[in-house]
Specification:
The complex is a heterodimer.
Chain A lengths: L8 E4 L30 H4 L3 E8 L11 E8 L6 H11 L19 E4 L2 E4 L12 E4 L6 E3 L2 E2 L2 H9 L22 H8 L9 H5 L1 H5 L5 H12 L6 H11 L13 H5 L6 H14 L6
Parallel strand pairs in A: 2-6
Antiparallel strand pairs in A: 1-3, 2-3, 4-5, 4-6, 7-8
Helix pairs in contact in A: 3-7, 7-8, 7-10
Chain B lengths: L1 E8 L3 H12 L4 E5 L15 E2 L8 H11 L6 H20 L14 E2 L9 E2 L5 H16 L2 E4 L1 E8 L10 E8 L5 E12 L20 H9 L3 E2 L4 E7 L10 H4 L3 E3 L6 H4 L12 H13 L9 E4 L5 H7 L1 H11 L8 E10 L2 E3 L11 E3 L4 E2 L12 H16 L18 E2 L31 H21 L6 H15 L6 H18 L13 H25 L17 H4 L1 E6 L6 E6 L17
Parallel strand pairs in B: 1-2, 1-9, 2-6, 9-16, 15-17
Antiparallel strand pairs in B: 3-5, 4-5, 7-8, 8-9, 10-15, 10-19, 11-14, 12-13, 13-14, 18-20, 19-20
The chains are: A alpha+beta, B alpha+beta.
The complex binds flavin-adenine dinucleotide, iron/sulfur cluster (SF4) and FE2/S2 (inorganic) cluster.
Flavin-adenine dinucleotide binds next to helix 1, strand 2, helix 4, strand 7 and helix 11 of chain B.
Chain lengths: 290, 613
């Protein structure tokens, strides 16, 4: 493996850097995904070569980075290299100020959702060899950028918290008697996919409705509501209370079933389906339409 | 300055459980965590939670299995507490909505796990840790417990009496990663460290990037001994490029291991003639590394784990998630190619010395979870025993810190006069701080005005500000990444599954070099906004201290117990080594001492038996 040193080249970013805490580039959303259909056998072609990355840079505090720009990095390819591996290499070897969130490296912590070649993806779960070069790595669109690839997640967390994301049953058996609430296998199966969410915010970032309506609960929060509303262990009154939360003005009825969230979810959660199911429940309960 | 009754540092399984318990006991509680809670590494655990729930099972059997698995280095009061409390605490998770896998009759499922005499591993699909983490975070949200997320804890505010056992911890100093602001957090009743494992001391690990032993290091420098640090569990099948774990299930279903020459080495070279690939984790790990060391490894680095012969149908049916892992993280299609695997650091049995109430020798300072050593795992942890440790000892530490009476602890803590001190360790270099400056010591030099907690916090904040300024003002020198890589490589080369006196000494020398280089470390990123360069520079310092204790423990313990293998003495030595290794920072001049293991339980004594799996 070559460890040839490569200074980042700097290049202007094509978008308007006006606003404080610049919005990340929205126009990119429309771009086609850069995935090319390759099998892993093609890895051999990349062995010994370098991968060309174009990484979004922005820092409100550092003069040279106040104008958003793209830096080029050339990283030596190794078999199995993910997008996260590549940016970690660029940071550790070339520019220690390159900033992004990451932790688990195995698609469970949900920290490293980036906009890679025009699509929301987890850096750690995306093989570099499957992407067209140069690989363009940007922060999640429609989120305020804090620095480089780091976006402000507060609004996402607020939306998650707005659906009362915790189990509610005041009438559980006595724990010391080691008695559980019974749950059928079918019911567990029904909520299974919805419980897999890792709070990565890819879905919300891909959603046109969320982009236009800041108060829209968004697919992840609605999925969280689904997870509890469909759990038979919660009493009926709690379920109704939950449906009232999600059928409000900025709730489920906003969704126009565009499936973009479902397409990007790294945990394969059928988000649109879950939103539709809640709409049906709300109708069944005769709750009003917006 | 922020102020709460109980401050919990870290929001993985242990920290969240501690915060809920302290809150329920009436304390104003806050979590301070460098990651948002749901990002914690507890989310990576797959297998399950051991709890004697069913009729026919019994906490005493769980305690017995755990003691045996620990190779008789677990302390009986801790082991028995774990086994007794785990059933109720596991059930409580169900009452909080945890989506456990179910039986036909709607009860929670349990399955068999290595080393257990009864199928008592309670699980939620292959994502038990993810669900445990999220369920507990949900309960924290429900209770409105304050969370300071993306706040990096830099140090403890501890008084500086000469004897660490007389010291008191009054809070922590942390910085807001997003803004760079440094603040004191005053804790009126107690600080609980729940910062997770130190896996990043090794260059190949199943642990997250955030597992940097911060809690270990700040407690150690403040005067809390680190216990049994040499006991590190390695997992034989992790993917070479990321360390992602490939579960035992592949070998369980019939997967085979072979070397570069295509030989099924477990049999051909006699590592395990009966069990082959199904031999225990440490046996398989050592076999793999022997192959590599003797030139039969693939690319001089790994071996192959092959499951192709099982057929597509069976693989898709039983091992589908493995296909995804190999594809996503290694770029390998397990249906057409064998998967590369090698041993990876997985779990640290040792940690911050505590008693069964989570208390350390410093008044007001607690630890729980993987960063703590109670000790339940002793020389080796059984699969499925870490998660119950989080909930049982997290809960106890939270309650005790909030002032609840849990009865007197039987486990002793602290470096006292009556302990056995190691006096003739043959150290190749002096461990500990390079050219000790008072400011580098873990405790605030406060000229004896220790009664004033606020003043102490302010001084500690000031010291950390100065440290940050020093690191950021410097324009050249060496960067943390270079030091970290060197440290990690030395640990993996020399303090891995194979340990020799010569190798460990080499590691200690490299660690010394790292310390010296760290004197010249600087932070290149000039920004106060989300400066991960600064955070990692702090973490690297902690890794150096932690790595050194691992190497020191490994050097003095000249026997083969649990996960610790020594070339010079390949057998367990109960005559000399039924004792814990402890290392005390001692103002920058570390001392090694020992405390006998407690094998006397509530009603019976656990007699050491041969561990034959
Ligand atoms: C791949 C894998 C699989 C596993 N499977 C199992 C299993 O099946 N069963 C089992 O019992 N065990 C399993 N384990 C072990 C178990 O998961 C861990 O030991 C356990 O989750 C650790 O939990 P914790 O709460 O101690 O730490 P963590 O979950 O790592 O949390 C640490 C917390 O501390 C915070 N923190 C750290 N440093 C600082 C600082 N300086 N300032 C502020 N906050 C800080 C972090 O933000 C984080 O919130 C597995 C481990 C791994 C790696
Ligand atoms: S639903 Fe999927 S995309 Fe959305 S936050 Fe959860 S894991 Fe991410
Ligand atoms: S680093 Fe955790 S999801 Fe990618």
């Amino acid at each position: 493996m070559s460890t040839q040193q490569q200074e980042p080249e700097t290049q202007e970013a094509p978008q308007d850097p006006e606003m404080k805490g610049a919005e990340s580039p929205v126009d990119e959303r429309e771009r086609e995904s850069g995935v090319v259909d390759q099998t892993s056998a093609d890895d051999a072609d990349l062995e010994g070569e370098t991968v060309h990355l174009k990484v979004f840079r922005y820092d409100p505090e550092v003069e040279a980075k106040q104008e958003p720009r793209f830096d080029d990095f050339h990283v030596p390819f190794t078999k199995g290299m993910t997008v996260l591996d590549a940016v970690m290499y660029a940071r550790d070897e070339y520019d220690s100020s390159l900033t992004f969130r990451h932790s688990c490296r195995q698609a469970v912590c949900g920290s490293d959702a980036f906009f890679v070649n025009g699509k929301q993806r987890l850096g750690c779960k995306t093989q570099i060899s499957e992407l067209e070069q140069p690989v363009r790595i940007e922060p999640l669109p429609h989120q305020e950028v804090v620095k480089d690839l780091v976006v402000d997640m507060e609004h996402f967390y607020d939306q998650m918290h707005a659906v009362e994301p915790y189990f509610q049953n005041e009438d559980t058996p006595d724990a010391s008697a080691l008695e559980e609430q019974r749950q059928s296998r079918e019911n567990r199966e029904k909520i299974k996919m919805s419980t897999r969410c890792i709070w990565c915010a890819s879905c919300v970032s891909s959603c046109n409705i969320a982009a236009g309506d800041n108060q829209y609960l968004g697919p992840a929060a609605i999925n969280k509501a689904y997870r509890f509303a469909m759990d038979d262990r919660e009493p009926e009154e709690v379920k109704e209370h939950r449906l009232r939360i999600i059928e409000q003005e900025h709730g489920v009825w906003r969704c126009q079933t565009q499936f973009s969230c479902t397409e990007v979810c790294p945990k394969d959660i059928p988000l649109t389906e879950h939103i539709q199911a809640l709409k049906r429940e709300a109708v069944k309960k005769n709750l009003k339409f917006w | 300055m922020y102020e709460h009754d109980v401050i919990v540092v870290g929001a993985g399984g242990a920290g969240l459980r501690a915060a809920i318990a302290a809150h329920e006991a009436g304390a104003d509680t806050a979590l301070v965590t460098k990651l948002h809670p749901v990002r914690s590494h507890t989310g990576a655990a797959e297998g399950g939670i051991n709890a004697a729930l069913q009729e026919g099972d019994d906490w005493e059997l769980h305690a017995y299995d755990t003691m045996k698995g620990s190779d008789y280095l677990g302390d009986a009061p801790a082991v028995e507490t774990l086994a007794q409390d785990s059933p109720e605490d596991t059930m409580r998770l169900e009452h909080w909505g945890m989506p456990f896998s179910r039986e036909e009759d709607g009860r929670v499922s349990q399955r068999p796990f290595g080393g257990l005499s009864y199928p008592r591993t309670t699980y939620a699909g292959a994502e038990t840790g993810h669900h445990l983490l999220h369920v507990m975070y949900e309960q924290v949200v429900k209770r409105g417990i304050q969370v300071y997320d993306e706040w990096y804890v830099m140090n403890l505010a501890t008084t500086d009496e000469p004897d660490p056992n007389d010291r008191t911890c009054h809070g922590v100093v942390a910085y807001d990663v997003q803004s760079g602001q440094i603040e004191g957090f005053k804790a009126n009743d107690g600080v609980i460290l729940a910062t997770g494992g130190p896996g990043q001391a090794f260059d190949h690990t199943t642990n997250a990037v955030s597992c940097t032993g911060d809690g270990h290091a700040i407690a150690y420098r403040a005067g809390v001994p680190l216990e049994d640090m040499e006991f590190i569990q390695f997992h034989p099948t992790s993917l070479p490029s990321t360390g992602v774990l490939i579960s035992e299930g592949v070998r369980g279903e019939g997967g085979i291991l072979y070397n570069e020459k295509g030989e099924r080495f477990m049999f051909e070279y006699g590592y395990a003639n009966n069990d082959g690939e199904l031999a225990s984790r440490d046996v398989v790990s050592r076999a793999e590394l022997t192959e590599v060391n003797e030139g039969r490894g693939v690319n001089d680095e790994y071996v192959y784990l092959d499951m192709r012969h099982l057929g597509e149908e069976r693989i898709l049916d039983r091992l589908e998630n493995i296909l995804h892992l190999a594809e996503d993280f290694e770029g390998v299609d397990g249906l057409v190619e064998p998967m590369p695997v090698k041993p990876g650091q997985h779990y640290a049995m040792g940690g911050i010395e505590t008693d069964e109430n989570g208390q350390t020798n410093i008044d007001g300072l607690y630890a729980a979870g993987e960063c703590a050593c109670v000790s339940v795992h002793g020389g080796n942890r059984l699969g499925g025993n870490a998660l119950p440790e989080l909930i049982v000892f997290g809960k106890r530490a939270g309650r005790h810190a909030a002032g609840e009476d849990l009865g007197d602890a039987q486990i002793e803590t602290g470096y006292g006069e009556d302990v056995e001190v190691e006096t003739d360790a043959d150290l190749p270099v002096t461990p500990g701080e390079v050219g000790i400056e008072p400011a580098d010591d873990g405790v605030a030099a406060d000229g004896g005005v220790t009664a004033d907690a606020e003043g102490l916090l302010e001084r500690t904040v000031e010291r950390e500000r100065e440290r940050v300024d020093r690191l950021m003002d410097k324009d050249d020198g060496i960067q943390h990444a270079e030091i970290r890589q060197k440290l990690q490589k030395a640990m993996t080369d020399y303090v891995n599954v194979f340990r020799t006196e010569e190798g460990i000494k080499k590691a200690l020398k490299v660690i010394r070099e790292c310390r010296e280089e760290y004197q010249h470390v600087y932070v290149d990123d000039p920004s106060r906004t989300f400066n991960t360069d600064l955070q990692q520079t702090y973490e690297t310092r902690n890794l150096i201290d932690v790595a050194e204790t691992i190497a020191l423990g490994a050097l003095v313990r000249n026997e083969f117990r649990g996960a610790h293998w020594r070339k010079e003495r390949q057998e367990r030595d109960d005559e000399n080594w039924l004792k814990h290794t402890l290392i005390s920072w001692n103002g920058g001049k570390p001392d090694i001492f020992y405390r006998p293991v407690i094998l006397e339980g509530e009603e019976k004594t656990y007699e050491p038996k041969v561990r034959s799996y």
